[in-house]
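Hypothesis: this fold can be encoded by more than one sequence.
Test: take the structure tokens below, design a sequence, compare later.
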């Protein structure tokens, strides 16, 4: 019951052809393909931007803990 037989797929294909027409189906497929391509490109650009941001943030993050660890120890010694 979970899978369709060949006759079910043929009926679905016939309904799609009747609704959209034979000329419109390749245009729809091309549009879907272009959308997927643009989506993958946007994800790749976002990952590259995130990687660049992380690389730029690492030197700042490394300098901050050393400065904060020295201040509390000085306060403890003076108290």
């Amino acid at each position: 019951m979970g899978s369709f037989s060949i006759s079910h797929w043929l009926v679905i294909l016939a309904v799609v052809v009747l609704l959209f027409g034979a000329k419109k189906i390749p245009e729809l497929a091309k549009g879907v393909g272009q959308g997927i391509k643009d989506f993958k490109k946007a994800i790749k650009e976002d990952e590259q931007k995130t990687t660049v941001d992380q690389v730029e943030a690492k030197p700042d993050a490394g300098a901050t803990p050393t400065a904060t660890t020295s201040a509390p120890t000085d306060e403890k010694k003076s108290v």
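Helices lie at 6-20, 24-78. The radius of gyration is 29 Å.
Hypothesis status: open.
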